[in-house]
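Every protein is a chain of amino acids, and every chain bends into a shape of its own. The protein below has been through that process, and both of its lines are reproduced in full.
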Amino acid sequence: MRAFFLAQRRLLFYVTIILQISATAAGDEGPFGIDQRVPWTSSRITGTPDPPPPYRTVVAFPNLKFEEPTAMTSAPGTDRLFVVERYGKVRSFSKQRGTKHADVLLDIGKEKPIYGLAFHPQFASNGYFYITYLVDPARETPRGTRISRFQVGREGRVADRESEQIIFEWPSGGHNGGCLKFGPDGYLYIGTGDSSGIADQLLNGQNIGTVSGAILRIDVDKTTNDRAYVIPEDNPFVEMEGARPEIWAYGLRQPWKFSFDRANGDLWTGNVGQDLWEQIFLIERGGNYGWSVMEGSHPFAHPSSSTTTPNFDRSRAVSFTEAHSCQRSKARTSTATTTRVRSGCFATIGRQGVYRTIANCSIQHCGWLALPRM
């Protein structure tokens, strides 16, 4: 038996040597039976193993370019769109596809990055709009992130730089948030990051004694002796000792963009994750969304105390390879955790331009949306 196995091993050795010699010879002479390789250009195979995406993007305004746009919105009583350029400018332009010029509505200087923009519901009569900007991006300070109100001049196209009124400030840090929206109730909603660098190093996420890591809700139509706003009486933590009464929901790392569902008023936010998970949350009054005890619905590093159970039943977490920031428009939710999009048209902002996503619609129905793949 031993002799039999030895013979097999010798045979395998000789076969291997012969194959190597043959391969070397073939390499010298070229592929066997093929004198010249001819590109295959007549294939009729189309598509991929994956189904085609349900949407496609096209440039909505091919003649316009923007420098690092961070926000886009419209204003009540106007037929124009407004885009924030990160380094200190707000531009406006006509919704016509062929428009070739974007006017400068506001310029506060490139040393003051802008991250949020919202127009007052009565903008057509009062000319008020609000921006979030960093006072000094090179320094982290207790009042380094600022919301200011400006007013458009009588000509209606340019803001009066001297009309600035500071409304609200919070600490600047690694995550500043800055998204601004007026809700269906007329109050101003504000997204704040956790004002920390990596892993919520200041432990602000579960601390309702600070406004960082939260979505805030204030009334900018009224003032007090020491504030340029009023706290709505039905804010969830108005009566809680030590809590900041501006807070509407908390436990958020970086609620970069959010918006209200126009059909039912639901508030949805895209929350930037730390290591593995991005999240889309349905924001509810007094809700705790877990950071930094949790990253989405997954345990994280800091077992700091939490005042309520995190709200995960109406959320969705997706991996970093899937996720995009979320801005919701003409969308609806299923009964559980997924987000479904009805036929509609959505626009996203790229590094330089504005794009629209086509799904059986026309440009005038556009909102701004960026959703993870379903």
In short: DSSP finds two helices and 24 strands in the chain. The domain at 66-319 is CATH 2.120.10.30 (Neuraminidase). Residues 153 and 160 are 6 Å apart (CA to CA).
